[in-house]
Amino acid sequence: MSREPSRFTIALRQVHRRLTAFIMSVVALFGAYQLHYHPQTPLPQEWNAALPLDVSAPVSALTGWKLRQALASPDACLAALDQTARYEALTPRNDREECNVPNRVALSDLANVSLSLDETSCATALRTAMWIEHGVQPAARELLGTQVARVVHIGSYNCRRIRTSSGNSTRWSSHATADALDVAGFDLADGRRLRLIRDWSDTDSAGAFLRAAQASSCKWYRTSLGPEYNALHADHFHLQATGWGTCR
Q1: From the CB of residue 176, how many other CB atoms can be counted at a distance below 10 Å?
Q2: Domain regions of the chain by residue span
Q3: Which of 2, 123, 194, 234 has the smallest set of CB atoms within 10 Å of its CB?
Q4: Could you give the angle at which helices 63-71 and 122-131 cross, rounded to 10 degrees?
Q5: Residue 27: CB atoms within 10 Å
Q6: What is the spatial distance between Cα 134 and Cα 103, in angstroms, rounded to a whole number?
Q7: For residue 34, what pLDDT is reported?
Q8: DSSP label of 51
Q9: pLDDT per residue over 75-95, tens digit each?
Q10: What is the DSSP letter of 12?
Q11: CA–CA distance, 92 with 184 (Å, rounded to integer)
């Protein structure tokens, strides 16, 4: 006749299970630490949460989190920009309460393309680098068989209110804090020049590329407005770091 285990035996088994679970947790944590921090870790950069954003690394489930971490700190943003841009860090701009750019930079090259910009925010520059690297260039290679050599823009910082079809709004534009960039077109490595005002409605590869470029921008900016939004955007993409996910 079998005997039920004593209370002591039951308690001992519970202690054993808890101790085993604790040891396994410690081993798992140690393994995770080694996987992330060991100099010879096999974990790719894009999957290593211990490493900061690398613009040129493949996109992974951690990329958005790494980008947010970089954007949360002025120093981290500049460190990420160091990898992918030729730029000059500028003194903060503070023209008035509504018009200020604390982490201000001037660009000459970004993500291996020519992008000459007198001033923008580091955050806008970094978002643009991600867009070029992971949206614009892949679309150019796939649809045009070439690379983008130059991004043509019509500015980032502008101390003004929002423009509407019925005149200026009472609200301040995201350009007033350099949280936006207006892109008018692209010059390609094979000599072609694409402009939204002329090529957006084309049914050939040029039009397909421009539409793909805007679609991909919605992943890296919170607002993306193009020629189909309204007549004020017939000649450019308005790419904005703030907003609620508008992509039109």
Answers
A1: 22
A2: 7-43, 81-247
A3: 2
A4: 160
A5: 10
A6: 24
A7: 46
A8: S
A9: 999 999 999 999 999 999 999
A10: H
A11: 27
Q: Look up residue 157 and give its amino acid.
A: Y
Using the predicted structure, report yes or no on whether residue 40 has a pLDDT greater than 80.
no
Residue 63 token pair? 């990329």
Quote the CA–CA distance of 113 and 129 in Å, as a whole number.
9
pLDDT digits (tens, 9 = 90+) for 179-214: 999 999 999 999 999 999 999 999 999 999 999 999
- This prediction's pTM: 0.83
What are the helix (H) ranges across 57-204?
63-71, 74-82, 122-131, 137-144, 196-199
Q: H-type helices in the chain, by residue range?
A: 7-37, 63-71, 74-82, 122-131, 137-144, 196-199, 205-220
100-137, pLDDT tens digit by residue? Answer: 999 999 999 999 999 999 999 999 999 999 999 999 99
Question: Could you count the other beta carbons within 10 Å of the beta carbon of residue 136?
Answer: 24
Distance, CA of 231 to CA of 5 (rounded, Å): 81
Q: What is the spatial distance between Cα 179 and Cα 51, in angstroms, rounded to a whole number?
A: 26
Instruction: Read off the tokens for 32.
Output: 């995770």
Q: With the C-alpha atoms ordered 107, 135, 99, 82, is the resulting torsion angle positive or negative?
A: negative
